[in-house]
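New to this. Explain the following:
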Amino acid sequence: MGKRSRQRQKNQSTGRDSRDNGWGNGYADIVKENKLFESYYKELGLVPEGEFEQFMDAMREPLPATIRITGYKSHAKEILHCLKEKYFKDIQELEIDGQKIEAPQALSWYPDEQAWHTNMSRKIIRKSPLLEKFHQFLVSETESGNISRQEAVSMLPPLLLKIEPHHKILDMCAAPGSKTAQLIEMLHADMDVPFPEGFVIANDVDNKRCYLLVHQAKRLNSPCIMVVNHDASCIPTLHINSGGKRDVLFYDRILCDVPCSGDGTLRKNIDVWKKWTTSNSLHLHGLQLRIAVRGVEQLAVGGRMVYSTCSLNPIEDEAVIAALLEKSEGALELADSSADLPGLKWMPGVSSWKLMTKEGMWYSDWSEVPSSRQTQIRPTMFPPTDSEKLASMHLERCMRILPHHQNTGGFFVAVLVKKAPMPWNKRFPKVKLGGEAEEEEAFKGASLAQETAAKQDGVCGPPPLKKMKLFGYKEDPFVFLTEDDPVFTTIQSFYDLSPDFPKLNVLTRTHEGKKRHLYMVSKELRNMLLNNSERMKVINTGVKVWSRNSDGEEFGCAFRLAQEGIYTLQPYIRSRIITVSVEDIKVLLTQENPFLSKLQDHAHAQAKKLGMGSIVLKYIPNPSNPAEPQCSIQLCGWRGKTSIRAFVPRNERFHYLRMLGVEVFKDKQGQKPSDGEKEGKEGEEAEVQKPILGLLKYVNVVHARSPCV
């Protein structure tokens, strides 16, 4: 028996794992056992009777890889069709080492088949050229923002928020940003509206993680997202100008996905097996409650807040919700979400639980806790003792997701609806001092209410007032252009912008010197920026719409269009537009600087009428020809003296080519196709020119027999 075989056998007998975790990283020699974890959850009885072994077995298995098709993109249906018809169909008939490969499955509870999961490991993917192409497709589409890699249970909170395009949304602990991306997609449900009324404020306390958040959000090219950097437990109250008056901003929807011990993530975060202890939850409970309290304070009456953790521990879950409901005195209620996601299997929240220290001591009630432990263990960690009050909370409306029920991670989620202002806001109405002083006094009053109440009954109210500290990099300023800024003179005439173009929503990142890039935000985010510049640390906002191009000045405009913002900007552009066909786009995306004569007659005639400079290349779908993409495609381009080119990033090129029935893949270095493959491809291959797609060393474009539309 070889060394590897002996090691594999040893791993299986000891519960060690040396396999790849889906498409993620491989882990070696980690013992998937924690006696304290098992005894704790056995004693609590959170897993249905007779299922505990299944629960533990599922926890030891690698987590399936899950993908979500970006729902707001008009291309979502095209991608789904391409996945199902091109890749999933082929995978169903695939065998590797005599074993049939299980094709990806749609998540039954996610709307419109927009989310899929698969158990394929990286090792399996490496063994098949077909799976390698599928993997490349996923990577490329992820980079261009059309697909997101996201754990299945992580998709739940945004769905339960029931987002509409006019909602003002706060994501309190947003990094790394997969849920934030979902929120943005839901705002842009109608792609014909470039500026939805709503917006997303995505916050994270960690300055470095905020840049992960920016990366995620930028893939979606939305003018309605702002990334800020604050401690969520004392995130500042923001102001907006409403009808000439200065009002406090209340959010319609808040996502409160708090930091947690993460014991629901054992399947992907293998380190948790050796690090897990009950102390983790005891240390985090106070912070989780402070963040949740700050969230409901900023929630509008009638609004919804989703509280979620990837922990199964009641100290982090129902205990926080119960404390929040008790302190709210009827201002909050748990919503019944049982019918919102048909197909999802979940367990109701619990209304009784105990607490255990890392030494194994159990406490069922605050009265049992010795004084020496009372700084670490707090009254809010226990269920309410008043049975009537406990029953009125309806903690069974909380949702617990167990890993063995639908092959997911563990998760907890609760939906709260605000019925009235929080009681401490009522008790301490604003003193008429005007401006900042008015709010400061009101907030001090609320903090005083919390301190007094906390001393009396141990229930946390609003967070104490803290001075805002700014850490991390000093960001460039956000400077809005005035309506008469000279930059607009040439832009207006060159692109013939419509009269309703919102000039005031255009900003740049410098006070002095030449403006390099111009960005656009929605008018609501402009309102936010102008009224809160001193109170919040903004990391990023706006979508790039124009970039300075010194060559352009001689042709009439120093700014060329940016692909990131073309879908936002194009509705306002009335000239410099060339309507193109499917064949034109194929030429533009696979050739560098093709001559104008390479375009079909209709596009060629339009191009000849335009002078040199930046252009929009627009494909309009033809409903009578279903073999072609049935969604609009808009590309930035440049009309040269005798040629034309598309200014589109690499992965977006791949995306559009696939939509047009062209398969783009990267050959493995040195690997030649088999004779059978050569025969099947003869006459169909066309090499993509390296100057355009230079980041891939070996690229083939194979025209598919039927377009993936």
